[in-house]
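The pair is quoted verbatim as follows:
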Amino acid sequence: MNRKEKILLYGNNLWNFADGMFGPLIAVFTERIGGSILDISSAWAIYLIVTGIFVILIGKYSDYHSKERIMISGYALTALFTFCYLLVQTPVHLFMVQAGLGLALALCNPTWCALYGKYSSQETAGLTWGLADGEAKILTGIAIVIGGFIVKTFSFETLFITMGSLQILATLYQMKIFEKS
């Protein structure tokens, strides 16, 4: 595994861990801010629809601009919007944060995939992508339990600060992609 491939994989693993800490807890959080089952599903739908639309647009845009810069911008925005959960008091606030996170993810995903494919060995493409997908799922599974423990023991605020801080670290780590090999 080359240096840039490792940077992308490890940075993404840290980001996935942070992101995974919230997972299904969004349902409990939404109810705590006065939301209903429809608000929970609407928040998730907004996130997915915004992500889907912008993944297409940003994917095309990234073909003509620096994928590294776009990806790093997405990672940074993810941390920012994660901290915005601290300000959420109503379902409408949650919808806005989810839309922002959808845009941030759209900046990260197509560019990360393009860069990971670019820097990865084609001879071991199956293993390369297996590591990316498998490690992300394992870490997200572990993170969900840890996120639940943090909320039960401390609070949602502690969870959001932890998540956002880890996402800042992931962003800083991913910035190493700019260093010359």
Q: What stands out?
A: The chain is about 80% helix and 0% strand. Residues 91-119 form the longest helix (29 residues). The CA atoms of residues 74 and 107 lie 5 Å apart. The chain has one domain: 3-174.
